[in-house]
């Protein structure tokens, strides 16, 4: 879809539909909505007076313009109460409006920037939220079916802004929104893809293609390398499948980009020659163009490592899962998809931070040589794990993923996984669960999730839980009994991160949705891609140096 910002009067804009808005309780619309109302000789005020348009949340009122303005349709989107309006509601209303108009076969849409008027939200953030809402809300996954004859695609979204001084900010917001939403939709594509169309080899190919497109470095390691590394846990899971496992690594070097290095050299020169104005100009460019803050850079560049669970299909292995609903396990690589997709947006938005994504990828199948309950696996770190249940495979492959991550000596590790059914018993499909050994890093994740409009909730890591994964025959066992299933899983992971600040995100409750609601459509959610990207942006502009 083409998305752009244009300066002008929304009432004069020629599109299949224009979108304006109304807050709850407003009788006489102002701003863009007021301009359209006047152009329509008070049609919107009339509909309000008649009680058919009240500005409630999720209320959409379609008015035909009867030739009075170039656009044949005007959609009045209800925003609810102005006092409680948020960026999250901007996303929701944009998604709802876009779907409403797609349902009426509109191909081109023009909109005002919801939230930037009387609600007083930051116009740039509102533009970003409109783009995110539209792209996420219109997402479909139709690769494997014939299109219906009356299906339309929205081809164009134009944000029309009257005030010329706001145009640049709106364009920046649009650019960010596109990067974030396209990344989340890419993760959705990967998670929605059936297991036979997305093997570990296919996942690696998709990661490689993304890297080529965005300038990331990509390395895909094969089984012999895993053997050399001693990744016995990952290999133990892979043994039951005919599909070869892959170990995918994507690298983004934001602290070492050529452009930044060149500017830093110039800055040094300017300072040596005492050219203050010149130095200030370079610092400004570093900050605005690259998000690089001179005064706040820690001595050692921040290196964030993201580790994602890449089980391209989870049958449960020998501890096989029940048949009902097993098809959903094609999405058991959603953590891996999220970290790969986040790297795409990071590469486009260029924060001044180094980020590496790691995805151990394999199927979990009950083949003839599959790992059996009671088997003991030796991980890359040397620690051994007794496999009590082969369906608790995510923590096994992550044990090796995390041990590898730790060898990179990162500042932070964040892992993302559809790890336990227990997390949806605790938090339902509303929030992802998080567990950590480092509260300040968790606080940053929480902040990033808040900005993204994705929900996260922390579970405790009391030492007592560790007792549950003690094994008679190995250093630990891979299940810890019925109680606190998500936490005991996190305790196993914790064994492999050492003292590196780390947050584990269990997203098993929020990976797939069965209903369309707001920016969520049926199928894969694309969570927590936007949280991860915001985390990288946040750590780049405000490093956690004082708390590490
Ligand atoms: N992939 C599943 C977890 C899962 C469940 C993801 C539902 C998405 C939706 C994971 O590998 C698993 O099977 N975990 C087991 C662990 C148990 C055997 C200790 C579980 O949660 O049942
Ligand atoms: Zn499993
Ligand atoms: Zn699994």
SSE inventory with pairings:
Blueprint: E1 2-7, E2 17-23, H1 31-39, H2 43-49, E3 60-64, E4 73-80, H3 87-103, E5 108-111, H4 123-137, E6 156-161, H5 167-192, H6 200-214, E7 217-221, H7 223-229, H8 232-238, E8 246-253, H9 258-272, H10 276-290, E9 303-308, E10 310-314, H11 334-349, E11 354-364, E12 376-378, E13 384-386, H12 394-407, E14 412-417, H13 422-427, E15 432-436, H14 439-452, E16 456-458, E17 476-477, H15 485-494, E18 502-506, E19 512-513, E20 523-524, H16 529-541
Parallel strand pairs: 1-6, 2-4, 2-5, 5-6, 9-11, 9-14, 10-11, 13-17, 14-18, 15-16
Antiparallel strand pairs: 3-4, 7-8, 8-11, 12-13, 15-18, 19-20
Bound molecules: ligand BES and zinc ion (ZN) (2 copies).
Largest sheet: 9 strands, mixed
Annotated CATH topology of the largest domain: Aminopeptidase
- Helical proportion? 25-40%
CATH architectural category of the largest domain: 3-Layer(aba) Sandwich
Count of separate structural domains: 2
Shape, principal axes of CA atoms: globular
Helical stretch count? 16
Low-confidence stretches: none
Please give the number of β-strands: 20
């Amino acid at each position: 879809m083409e998305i752009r910002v244009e300066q002008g009067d929304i009432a004069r804009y020629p599109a299949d539909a224009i979108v304006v808005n109304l807050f709850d309780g407003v009788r006489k619309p102002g701003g863009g909505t007021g301009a359209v109302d006047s152009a329509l000789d008070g049609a919107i005020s009339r509909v309000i007076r008649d009680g058919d348009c009240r500005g409630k949340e999720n209320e959409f009122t379609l008015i035909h313009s009867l030739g009075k303005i170039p656009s044949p349709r005007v959609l009045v989107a209800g925003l609810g109460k102005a006092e409680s309006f948020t960026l999250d509601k901007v996303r929701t209303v944009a998604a709802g409006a876009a779907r409403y108009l797609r349902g009426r076969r509109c191909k081109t849409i023009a909109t005002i920037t919801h939230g930037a008027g009387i609600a007083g939200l930051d116009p740039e953030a509102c533009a970003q939220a409109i783009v995110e809402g539209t792209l996420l809300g219109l997402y479909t996954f139709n690769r494997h079916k014939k299109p219906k004859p009356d299906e339309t695609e929205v081809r164009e979204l134009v944000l029309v802004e009257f005030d010329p001084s706001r145009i640049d900010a709106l364009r920046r917001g649009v650019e960010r929104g596109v990067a974030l939403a396209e990344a989340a939709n890419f993760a959705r594509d990967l998670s929605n893809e059936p297991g036979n169309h997305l093997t570990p080899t296919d996942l690696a190919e998709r990661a490689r293609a993304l890297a080529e497109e965005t300038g990331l470095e990509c390395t895909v390691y094969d089984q012999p390398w895993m053997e050399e590394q001693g990744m016995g846990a990952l290999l133990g899971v892979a043994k039951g499948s005919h599909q070869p496992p892959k170990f995918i690594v994507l690298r983004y070097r934001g602290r070492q980009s050529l452009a930044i290095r060149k500017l830093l050299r110039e800055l040094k020169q300017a300072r040596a020659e005492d050219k203050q104005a010149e130095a200030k100009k370079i610092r400004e460019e570093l900050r605005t163009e690259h998000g690089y803050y001179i005064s706040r850079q820690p001595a050692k560049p921040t290196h964030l490592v993201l580790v994602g669970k890449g089980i391209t299909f989870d049958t449960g292995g020998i501890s096989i899962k029940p048949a009902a609903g097993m098809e959903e396990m094609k999405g058991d690589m959603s953590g891996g998809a999220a970290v790969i997709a986040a790297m795409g947006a990071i590469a486009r938005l260029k924060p001044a931070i180094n980020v590496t994504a790691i995805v151990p990828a394999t199927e979990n199948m009950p083949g003839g040589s599959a790992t059996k309950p009671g088997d003991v696996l030796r991980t890359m770190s040397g620690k051994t794990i007794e496999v009590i249940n082969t369906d608790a495979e995510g923590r096994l492959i992550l044990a090796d993923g995390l041990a590898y991550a730790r060898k990179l000596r990162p500042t932070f590790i964040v892992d993302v996984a559809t790890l336990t059914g227990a997390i949806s018993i605790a938090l339902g499909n509303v929030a992802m669960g998080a567990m950590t050994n480092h509260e300040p890093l968790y606080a940053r994740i929480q902040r990033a999730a808040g900005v993204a409009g994705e929900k996260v909730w922390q579970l405790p890591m009391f030492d007592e839980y560790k007792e549950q994964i003690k094994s008679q025959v190995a250093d630990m066992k891979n299940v810890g009994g019925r109680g606190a299933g998500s936490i005991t899983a996190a305790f196993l992971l914790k064994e492999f991160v050492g003292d590196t600040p780390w947050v584990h995100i269990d997203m098993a409750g929020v990976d797939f949705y069965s209903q369309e609601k707001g920016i969520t459509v049926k199928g894969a959610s694309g969570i927590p891609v936007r949280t991860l990207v915001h985390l990288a942006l946040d750590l780049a502009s405000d490093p956690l140096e004082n708390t590490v």
